[in-house]
């Protein structure tokens, strides 16, 4: 058995210093020109790819400290425990109390999500409902979608858009509004 020329330890050292790295930096750290060699070593370590910056950056799963939405950023580069922007957008829409408008998702994810939303709708993975001149993106599951749309109607009738509470990742929902939503769902 011949000795291993490239070791994952070389990448671990780079990530300890830089936290995130491009493919070119990873190749240089390993002393190779092969992407496949880099991916084999990254696979050994457990890694994720950025969903921002055209997926140009990599980090180790042990370095990323994901928040309650499964997001982490370093130097304005965004990563998600869900993987791609499409998968991250889908997870956010599915978990939202009141669905999301595209502009809200853009702000939440720090990137433009228009193409990801269109792909998800076209594949039937999420649903969109025209609401007040904009599309509200909701779960593909009818029962969840109904609750998201009802919650959005309640939010819009009870608060100004500037302080709209959106659930996970949004601003804090007042206790009075939570009580109103619970009462509404119990009566339906």
What does this structure look like?
This protein is α+β, with helices and mostly antiparallel strands and 188 residues long. It has helices at 8-18, 23-30, 35-45, 85-95, 102-109, 114-122, 142-158, 175-187, and strands spanning 21-22, 47-49, 57-60, 71-74, 77-80, 100-101, 126-131, 134-139. The protein is built from eight helices and eight strands; from the N terminus they run H-E-H-H-E-E-E-E-H-E-H-H-E-E-H-H. A hairpin with a 2-residue loop joins strand 4 (71-74) and strand 5. The protein folds into two domains: 8-80; 85-187, Arc Repressor Mutant, subunit A (Orthogonal Bundle).
List keywords for this structure.
Arc Repressor Mutant, subunit A; 8 strands; 2 domains; alpha+beta; 3-stranded antiparallel sheet; 188 residues; 8 helices
Return the CATH class of the largest domain.
Answer: Mainly Alpha
Count of structural domains: 2
Compute the CA-based radius of gyration: 21 Å
What percentage of the residues does DSSP assign to strands (E)?
A: 15-25%
**Main sheet specs:** 3 strands, antiparallel
Total number of helical segments? 8
